[in-house]
Amino acid sequence: MIEPALKQGIWVLCDRFADSTRAYQGSLGSVSPGLINAMQRVTIGDLKPDLTIILDLPVEIGLQRAAARRGSGTPDRFEGEQLSFHQGLREAYRKIAADEPARCVLIDANSDPDTVAGRVWNALRDRLLPTPASVVSV
To answer: What is the fold, at CATH topology level, of the domain defined by 2-129?
Structure first.
């Protein structure tokens, strides 16, 4: 689905991608980076996002937001994990962003939704949209 759309010039947005495997199974699980790389070569080949946006906020705030969304419902299996699990996951994503700054933008999500949306839009604009000729400096 992704490659045919890209060949047609269509933008493709993914909620998670190979980085999730790297963070969950690699950093927090017992799967070696070599095996993850091999699986990635088989499943997606050389396909990589042009831009990865990583929304970052303190673990406690993320869990509070999840609880507020959930209301009186039961926490899912990830929400029920220990604080150390979530801290490890956050660090794994932050490391991915630090290791691949040309592809990844780490966005502070510890703000109201409109502010965070503005930060996401700025990252999209700055990384993916062409600069108008009238703005180019020589």
So the answer is: Rossmann fold (3.40.50)
